[in-house]
Amino acid sequence: MAAAVHETVLIGVCDGVIDKKKYTSYCTNKIGDRPDLLPVITLQHPTCSLCQRGLSHVVQVYCPLAASPYHRTISVFACTNPHCSGKSESWIVLRSQCLEDDIKARQDDKTTPCTESAMSRTDWCDEADDWGMDDEEQVAENGVQIPNDCIGEGNDVSSRLQDLCIDGDHHQSALQPNDVPVFQPFYISVMEETDLDGFHDTDHENELLRAYEEREGVTVEEIHSCGSGGATQEEYEKATAKHGDEVFTSFMKKISLCPEQVLRYSWAGSPLFISETVSDVIQTVPVCAHCGSPRVFEFQLMPALVSLLRSVDTDSDVSLEFGTVLVYTCRNSCWKSGSAAPVEEFAVVQPDPDQKLFK
């Protein structure tokens, strides 16, 4: 797919552990934990199509489309069975939607509203460059009413993401079988890729960067030098010898400004491939099974996420291995009125190029 002229790319990074004492909601962007359900949704826990084990929740993304009246949440699940690792069939993507009126109909007048901020709630898509406006300006600009239960105050991203006060009785989380691993919960903070020049690394982010460099056998400096035109042949070979793959080298150059990114979002945009594909991925993505519309790329999970996916059970060594996971969703984001079941979307898993060395 050709890149859009003004393609907006949003970057998700880990923004701290979710305190067990704080409730999250469907409008929380997060890693791990159990998915938070929209009030009208009932989830039958998904299982792996390869081994029939229950799937673990990997990420939850609250991503309402700019011109749509629907709340919209996407949850990604994966099988932790090592035999299923790296296979698209062992992943499931579920999209849930509902109208604000459906939520209000189920709310008690005394329920404390969610005060999560517009930054963590975020329009991940077309109007992302309108962040920073006040609520009235966003309504005027987008023509879409921001849900009152998901608006907050404050300028610090971390404090906004963690400033949740949803009532415990109103919290609805998916039930999960006891034998299904649960990953440690982290908030996801969001920024535009064009703002990364001013991004300030924290100690945690530097730790992730060092781990990524060690795992991939190449440093950010080497990647930058390869793309600067000033690299020697020896430097170039050092940075690319591990994989010998131009696609991988291009991938590394693109993410080098923020290697700790765990998610890239660009609705109907262009994915970053981590390795050459046997066939054209775009042509192998099936149309929506419900309305027949084509699916478009929406977001992808990035290599830095792998190191964060550890079980809440400290005695467990369960983990996931992947290079990147590409998520495609219905272009029309179709939804049947009154539906209580999520719509299954499509994921393409590209393994880390290193994995082929061990097969």
Descriptive notes:
It comes from Carassius auratus. This is Programmed cell death protein 2-like isoform X1. The structure is a single chain. By secondary structure, this protein is an alpha+beta fold. It folds into two domains: 10-199 and 265-358, no CATH class; 203-256, no CATH class. 19% of the residues lie in helices and 19% in strands. It is built from nine helices and eleven strands. It has helices spanning 100-106, 118-121, 135-142, 157-162, 203-216, 220-228, 233-240, 246-255, 281-284, and strands at residues 10-17, 30-31, 56-62, 70-78, 91-99, 186-192, 261-265, 295-301, 324-330, 343-344, 346-350. It has an eleven-stranded antiparallel beta sheet with strand order 10-5-4-3-2-6-1-7-8-9-11. Strand 3 and strand 4 form a beta hairpin. Helix 6 (220-228) packs across helix 7 (233-240).
